[in-house]
Amino acid sequence: MGGEGKVVCVTGASGYIASWLVKLLLDRGYTVHATVRSIDNHFHCYNHLNCCIFNINNVADDPKKTEHLLALDGAKERLSLFEANLSVEGSFDSAVNGCVCVFHTASPVTFSVDDPKVQLIDPAVKGTLSVLKSAAKVQSLKRVVLTSSMAAVVIRSGQPEHGFVMDETWFSDPSVCEQKELWYHLSKTLAEDAAVKFAKDNGLDLVAINPGFVIGPILQPTLNLTSEAIMGLIKNGKEVFSDGIYRLVDVRDVATAHILAFENPEANGRYCMVGEVVRSLEIMKTMNKLYPSFGQSERYKDSECVEPLPYSVSRAKVESLGVNFTPMEVSIKDTVESLKKKNLLSF
């Protein structure tokens, strides 16, 4: 199914997953309305529906945030940038107007906060509802695809014994998230829950994509959180998770899943997006195999991990959409090469 003649909206378009989503949508022929937080000081705008809309033929760009989007194939003809803020209700109205799908990716991503309610929870929950309220006004809209997270899946009390399989029927428990001060997990859990309830009450067709720890090449010029974290692991052996277990998925697979979730009329509910569950040791051994001259991973070369992984994540539902997962080795190599190309990693 091609996107010719179809208009879609991507919120938070300059982000890691969203940038790939915009690229792949343009590649498939879609016309894309891309929202970013602020363009005020970088763009000359023209008025339309009392809102600033920015077609790239008419604007100067902000290289930090949007240059990589403006450079994409098809962007000149079929990409328009819209300014919209999660905290301002109604600011997404113009961006979603006339669209057949809204891909809502915009949400704060950080694991270190002083005020979780202000910095994470309110922007995630209220921002999601703000986008959905705008979407509910659009008669042409067929579906909303929400970028949720495995953070909204994995945190619950009373986990089973080793060897269990997580799937879409698992939901994080907000009280456990709060008790463990896992504020990002709480924000994603509450945002997905609020979105599902709003969609049900307002007749919106909503599908959620729940990615794990996203790796793969970056399009944007600056490091996102997971790329920064994987770089820290590669360079310094700095663990991101205390248990050293990573639910890896390639960013290109995540973006593809979003598009397939719109294009497949049978898509429904939520989709766990995890290619492989691995220990950090396996990541470092793969690094050592790919880049033997890289000294940091030398100590992992002969290491063996005999303890079995405590769980796996089912790929059955998302594979039924047509997602083919990228092998971990390819994702790691492409991540490293991308960071080297952007002068963010050297060895």
Estimate the helix proportion, in percent.
25-40%
Assigned CATH class: Alpha Beta
Radius of gyration: 20 Å
Helix segment tally: 12
CATH topology: Rossmann fold
Total DSSP E strands: 14
Q: What number of structural domains do the residues give? A: 1
Oligomer: single chain
The strands making up the biggest β-sheet line up spatially as: 3-4-5-2-1-6-7-9-12
Q: Spans of 5+ residues with little confidence (pLDDT < 50)?
A: 40-62
What can be said about the biggest beta sheet? Answer: 9 strands, mixed
Structural class: alpha/beta
Rough shape?
A: globular
CATH superfamily: NAD(P)-binding Rossmann-like Domain
Please, what is the average pLDDT?
Answer: 87
Roughly what fraction of the amino acids lie in strands?
Answer: 15-25%
Distance N to C terminus: 43 Å
| CATH architecture group name | 3-Layer(aba) Sandwich
Summed up:
With 347 residues, this protein is of the alpha/beta class.
